[in-house]
Write a structure and sequence with these properties.
alpha+beta, Butyryl-Coa Dehydrogenase, subunit A, domain 1, Butyryl-CoA Dehydrogenase, subunit A, domain 2, Butyryl-CoA Dehydrogenase, subunit A, domain 3, two-stranded antiparallel ribbon, 10 strands, globular
Amino acid sequence: MNLSWSDDHLTLREEYRQLGLQIAEARITVSEGFDYAGWQRLTDSGMWKRVIPPAYGGTGEDWWGFTAALEGLAMTIRTPELLLSIIAQAGMVRALMLYGSEDQKDRYLTAILNGAISATGIAEPGTGTDVRSIATQLTALGDGYRLVGSKYNIAHAPIADFIMVVTRVADGSKQNVALVLIDKGTPGLAHGEPDSKLGNRNLPTGPLYFDDVPVPSTQVLGQLGKGLQQLVTIISLGRAYYGLVALNLPTPFVTDALEYAARRKSFDSTIDNHQYIQKRLVDLTIGMERNRWMVYAALHQLFTHDPQALLSCSIAKLCSAQDFIDGALSLLKLYGSLGYHEGLISQLVKDALGFAAVGGTEEMHQKNIFNQILRLHGTPA
């Protein structure tokens, strides 16, 4: 395992750190909503080309280079929405590369390189992300299928050009989960009202409804019935990347807090001389750094197909998310009443709270970690 970035990766991280600063500055003058301009800048920068092989229009499959770029962005961009969009799209690229047919790769990877936005529908109102209990159903009809059901809380649902839907197959088999690709405008596909959220409001989410949607057999991703195993492999990357984003987002806020503490006076001295202020910033930094190495380790295991990767990716997400939430609340307290005013700090708190659920709830990850412990010890879950 390499414990340091290469010079090329450091250069790449700095390039995207600067791009994050530019996107954050441009965002100030834009009204609420998805940052199409920022998304286009990322596409034009070649971000997706880095993980798409030349055969499909990219420059190579370098997930560590992509990771360096994502980390650079997260260090300066200040708000998570565009980062969460990147993670969602990265999962789709990984899904297509691992399980897509040649036609699917050629079609959808080309669309991504041209700026298309994807979505993944997993959760349902009655089951959350418990894939084994989903009600959405795929039924054979002629030489294809029909899809019936619904999904909710889907990132990009209101704006997606194509969607990967997790469904069960109505064939009575024990392994009956499938992944299917649905294009925008397909008959029977309907959108619900976009969600109104506490934070992360520039990441559009919402429900989708499938009313007898036609699904040609060529739109099944991977092996029919093996969708659960495929999905776990796909979403593990997102779990580690949620951790990467969560640990890096506070970076500019720590710098701001140090400057504020050095000029704010209380009890005849600047507050950076007070141990309780120092502790807030020390605890925040400790959380960021310990999570950084957990995320790197989880990604290394995932990229090298280590059997512990699924466990480590959940740990990386769970711990980074909790430390992000705790750190954001601690920063609000550091600023006192100013932190509670509408502004960057209060917005950080609202956005951070979303990480309690994005990429899976704490309960879901605890369950997954326990199941992975049983698996690694050879005990049936």
